[in-house]
Amino acid sequence: MTRETKSAPPSLLRTLFLSGAAGKLEALLDPGKSDPGHALPDPIGAPCSVLVCHPHPLGGGSMHNKVVYHAARVFRDLGWPTLRFNFRGVGLSQGTHHGEAEVEDVCTALEWLDREFQRPVLAAGFSFGAAMALRAAHHWPSVAAFLGLGLPLQTKDRSYAYPEFASWPLPALLLSGDRDPFATPDQLAQLAAVAGPHVQLKLVPGADHFFAHRLDSMQDEIRRWLNTLALSSQRDPLPAGESTT
User: Fold this and answer.
1) 238 inside domain
2) Is 175 among the domain residues?
3) What's 195's DSSP letter?
């Protein structure tokens, strides 16, 4: 896939509200490098739109989180339209935190991107946001790739299981710090092995769960992975008995 080597010019963030199952969800759209002849964003040459989901609300997570912002900036610099949003009960988003139903919020955002840009979607998330994005990405037809930053396996309050990886159809990158207390390198390697050849695992040396002092390294790994992708809305078929709905 051919990409511009120069950064896209700055684009104006749009504040908007998405209509979700729990009420309106506060969101920010960076429309990417747009054609000035269109009233609505119409990105030039962007192979996909991007969704980046934020970490756990009860830990102070929001769409303004540093990891989320720095990940979104990689796509902004490529000129790809990138959406961030607040899960239910966060910021100006309506509803109350649930812990599982936030997958519905991800689906709301994916549906909005499908309608707005009509192209494949790269679904990404950090920590809790990665867990929610993964579950939605597995069955959402337009999702062409998945980026999981600091995907958690065990926290103080809960464990995370990802049965979706047993039938994983998409190119994916699991990117974590090698000092992440919520998922050890061995645990992540086992998870990637279950998922199969579509999934790459990269560890940032010296980084913790929040990629503290390693955000530049995180961005570099994302860029390297993107250079290996040939994004398409066509995905491998799910095994017999699986459904995309």
Assistant:
1) no
2) yes
3) H
Distance CA 227, CA 221 (A): 10
Question: What is the rounded CA–CA span in Å between residue 22 and residue 9?
Answer: 35
In this predicted structure, the answer to whether residue 34 has a pLDDT above a threshold of 90 is no
- How far apart are the C-alpha atoms of 193 and 203, rounded to whole Å? 15
- Number of independent structural domains in the chain: 1
Which tokens go with 61?
């997570």
Q: Do 149 and 127 meet the contact criterion of CB atoms below 8 Å apart? A: yes
Round the CA-based radius of gyration of the chain to a whole number and report it.
17
pLDDT at 38 > cutoff 80: no
Instruction: Please calculate the CA angle 143-127-139 and round it to the nearest 5 degrees.
Output: 25
Q: Which amino acid is at 20?
A: G
pTM (global) more than 0.85: yes
Burial of 73 (0-12, 13-18, 19+ CB in 10 A): middle
